[in-house]
Amino acid sequence: QVLLVESGGGSVQAGGSLRLSCAASGPTYNRKSMAWFRQAPGKRREGVASIYTAGGVTYYADSVKGRFTISQDNAKNTVNLQMNSLKPEDTAMYYCAAGAGWVVAADPGHFEYWGQGTQVVVSS
C-alpha cells in the first residue's frame, strides 16, 4: 500500500507563494507517477501537475504553467509543489496522488492512491 501525507497549505494573499509537500511511503512500483490535484467547492477535481518519478518528466495544467513547479526529493521520498503568483481562483483543497502507471495529472481516475488533502486559500 502507498501512504501519502500532504502538508504546507494555508492562507495567503493574491500574489503570494506557498509550498506544498507530500510525504510518500510504500512500494515504489506503485508510485511511478506522482501528482497534485485540486478541488474547489462545487467543482470537479482537476489535475494541477504531475511528475514521473523515474526521469523527472513533468506535466502542468495550462492554468498553472509558469506559476507552479513540481519537484521530487528522492532522499526524503517527498514530492513538492511550489506555488507562486497565487490567485484567488487557486483556492481549493489540494491532494497528492500516486499512480502505478506512467500517467499525467489529466485524469484523477488514473491515480490509485490519494492523500487526505491540504487546504489552500488565496484572498484578493
Structure in words:
By secondary structure, the protein is mainly beta. It is built from no helices and eleven strands. The protein has strands at 3-7, 10-13, 18-25, 33-39, 46-52, 58-60, 68-73, 78-83, 92-99, 113-114, 118-123. The strands form two sheets. Strands 2, 4, 5, 6, 9, 10 and 11 form a seven-stranded mixed sheet that branches. Strand 7 and strand 8 (78-83) form a beta hairpin. The protein is globular, with a radius of gyration of 13 Å. It starts with a strand and ends with a strand. 33% of the residues are buried. The mean pLDDT is 95.
What is the number of helical segments per DSSP (H or I, 4+ residues)?
0
**Count of individual beta strands:** 11
Tell me the radius of gyration.
Answer: 13 Å
Major sheet: 7 strands, mixed
SSE succession = EEEEEEEEEEE
Structural class designation: mainly beta
Strand content: over 45%
- End-to-end Cα distance, whole Å, is 40 Å
- The overall pLDDT, averaged over residues, is 95
Q: Helix share of residues? A: under 10%
> So what's the overall shape?
globular
